[in-house]
Amino acid sequence: MRIYSLIFVLTLFSCSSNYHYQKALKKGLKPIISSDTIRVATIDSIPVIYRDSIIYERYFSSKDTVIRYENVYVPKTRLEIRTEYKIQRDTIRLTRVVEKAKAKASRPTGFAGINWTLVLIVLGVVLSILMYLKSK
Fold first, then answer.
1. pTM (2 d.p.)
2. Is there a domain that residue 132 lies in?
């Protein structure tokens, strides 16, 4: 039974794809380099003097450009995905906290700073006491 649990544990902990890729590069792997040809078209205008007037002649030209890139995709591990998500979440949370602090700092003072709920409760208590005294 112990041998099965040992095999099970060893299958859970494996190397990442990035580890194997780096190891292969150290041993001499040459990544597949793909290339594409892109045609870049340009329009040039050249002024030409014709019978005392300037006429612009257009020249269409095109150039071929070769782009090379490595054709290797290494997927991200769970840990890398989790850390990216945490960084993004913490940034959003930090932005929210900063915006709250700015709103509290820019809050006007004076009558706007009065707690109106407390004022209304006190006013209601005073009016109820006056009504009670008036009825006696």
1. 0.35
2. no
DSSP string, 20-72: HHHHHHHTT----EEEEEEEEEEEEEEEEEETTEEEEEEEEEEEEEEEEEE--
Tell me if 10 is assigned to some domain: no
Task: State how far Cα 135 lies from the chain centre.
Answer: 68
Let me know: does 65 contact 105? Beta carbons within 8 Å.
Answer: no
Question: What would the pLDDT profile of 54-76 be if each residue is shown by its tens digit?
Answer: 888 888 888 888 888 777 777 78
Counting every residue written for the chain, the total comes to: 136
Number of structural domains the chain divides into: 1
| Segment 86-121, tens digit of pLDDT | 999 999 999 999 999 998 888 776 666 678 889 999
Domain range enclosing 47: 32-71
Expressed in angstroms, the distance from the first to the final Cα of the chain is: 91
Collect contacts of 34-38 with beta carbons under 8 A, ≥24 apart.
34/68, 34/69, 34/70, 34/71, 35/66, 35/67, 35/68, 35/69, 36/66, 36/67, 37/64, 37/65, 37/66, 37/67, 38/64, 38/65, 38/66, 38/67
